[in-house]
Amino acid sequence: MTAPSNSRPGKQLTRRGLLAGVGATTGLLALSACSDTDPFAVDRASGGYSGGPIIIGSQQYYSNEIIAELYAQMMEKVGLSVTREYQIGQREVYLPELEAGKIHVIPEYGGNLLEYYSKTSASGSPTTATPARTAGDTASIQDTLLRTLPHSLTVLNPAEATDQDSLTVTKATAQAHSLTSIGDLASLGRPITIAANSEFTTRPYGPKGLKAVYGVDASVTPVEDSGGPLTVKALTDGTVDVADIYSSDPAIRAKDLVILSDPQMLILPQNVTPLVSASMPAIAATAINRVSALLTPDELRSLNHRSTGEKLSSKVIATDWLTSKKLL
Question: Could you say which of 22, 123, 196, 322 would form a disulfide bridge with 328 (CB–CB 3.0 to 4.6 Å)?
Fold first, then answer.
């Protein structure tokens, strides 16, 4: 349900206080909901949340919008006012907006978020011991994010669900060339082509990373739909050798595609991780963490299928799921 326009946010906390409060009990929920804090406007100069509606954004990716809508409806459930700004692009677009306090919440993916904020060497080599490259599992990534993010931002509990960038081939290609891992692509004896968003060119697991870690020469064929139907089509019709497709995409199973294994962990774990303003009310953090606690890989794939297969809106998908989990 949507909160009335005069609903008041809970007590605002510092980054340290928010982190201490995310495991809050029902008592904290009640106290926060009754706070007398006035909903003032966001402080655009210093960034961060300072009252008023919580602005939640999403990437230009249907799965990310579904997760954002789960967060939004849960925050509305506990009496917070929410403004939605979905489909706003990639990190280069929305992260500066978060840092400036123009957006307060967005679903993120742990490894990729850490890569963005980690310093790279002049060569851009992913083998450099950057914070991202030394954090190889979900817990390490979370811990490193908490130490690496700008002071105005923090992350809440990661979900078990992941949505990995994955290097994917058709089953026919995998069988014809005995491909099981990313390193096997070198056996093709020529540079490979990868369908992906143009940003893939500069990612640590893009062409430079593939060459440095696996000895694979690659070039990117830009397809700007974040691993969506156009990317899948480029792969299945033979336009490219490989596609960057998110691992929870139902098309992988529907089209009988093969995700190449990544034994060297070129692509870090991408657990769904809420990125939020560090001064956001604790009641909002608690509401979002309740979603993360139930969001498993199978649950995310099912949610995505309802979008791609049933063509339902993120609002309907989120409402049905939260109701089924007795959260609404």
Answer: 322
